Structures are given as C-alpha cells and as structure tokens.
C-alpha cells in the first residue's frame, strides 16, 4: 500500500512543488490537497493519511493550531518560510520542519525519517530495525534550544514531576515532558519502563535481581507494578 499524503498550504505554487516531488516517489501518492487548515481538519476526520505536509501561516487557523486540534495525528512535516516556529513545532512532535524554498534533496531526507520511524514502531525484519535504530534520534527542548539525542545513546530516563532527565554518556538533558509520552514514543523492543519514574535502555542492561537493575554504572529500582513487563521484554 502506498503512503497516503495530504498537502495543506494556502499558496498554490507551494502545493504544486510538493505535488511534483511526491509524484516522483513510487511508494507515495497524494490523497488530498487543502488550501486552509479548516478544510484539512474536515478532510482528516474522514480520510486516512500517513503524512501531512502542513504550512504554518494560513488565514483563520494556522498549522500549529490545526495540530493541537487533532486527537489522532498522522506523521506531520511542517513546510514554512518561517524558521522561528521550529521549537514549537518539535514540541508538538512533528516529524520534520522544512523551510521554504524546499529542495528535492531536503524533501527526501524527510521521507527517509518517515521510513525510519515506521521501521522502529512497526513489525519488520530485525536487521532493518537495528539499522534504523542506529540512525534514529529525537529533539528535546532544553535551556531555550533544541538538543538532538540519538536513541542508541540513551542509558535511562528519569521522571521529575512534569520533566524528564535523559541520561546519556557524558551528559544529562532535562526537558519539559512526561515520562508516559516518552514510553509511548520510544521503540518498545529497545526501551522498557521498570518503575513509575524510570525507563531504561534494554541494550545497556548489565545485570538485575528482584529489586533493581544495573544499567551500565547505574543501579535503578524495579517497581512492583512493572516487574512483569520488565521480564516480558527481556524474554522476548
């Protein structure tokens, strides 16, 4: 099945450019085009979409407002002439942020990200998942900037009320995010929640017992309510 794409932009030339790019891709097709966000909202209620190419500055409702209004979201690639919305866009978990004019090479990088995401989150060949995991990363807002962290570098994640602390070799990053969101977004074959306050990297487990797990040089508690889930992932 081909990747279903929706283009939302109030400028016809911008829609035409993305259309020309998508038509070059054998595994993609355009399921719809909308000239404003309200039209797109109605379209998304009735039609399955895999990738939403979304402009930000549009009349009546902008692209970021559309994202916030959607209960179920496709993967979203923002397409805009304005760089200043990047931080807010990534906070809304967009897949990528393309600044106009958009080159075909940059477009292809976004599609590559989409395929990497699908490999990590859906059943696939083990070798493909491992290759994608090596390249996979997420952006996190910390100290008024976006910090890029490769998933393979994460040792564990700790919940601190409405924040999480992400531990990697040589540094830790604190960002405004709930641990439940992190649990949902991280690939379940690579990360497991062991406690209400901790998610760990499965690959970095050194040893464990009934009460704690050693992840590299860190000893973390195993919560009673998470023990079965932890053992199930280890035995998968």
From TrEMBL:
Which keywords does this Swiss-Prot/TrEMBL entry list? Answer: DNA-binding, Phosphoprotein
Protein's name in the database = DNA-binding response regulator
Which Pfam family is one of those matched by this entry?
A: Response_reg
**The HTH LytTR-type domain, residue ranges:** 138-207
Q: Which residues form the Response regulatory domain?
A: 4-115
Where in this protein does the record say 4-aspartylphosphate is found? 55
What lineage, starting at the top, does this entry show?
Bacteria, Pseudomonadati, Bacteroidota, Chitinophagia, Chitinophagales
Highest taxon of the lineage: Bacteria
The reply on keyword Coiled coil is no
Q: Name one GO molecular function term.
A: phosphorelay response regulator activity
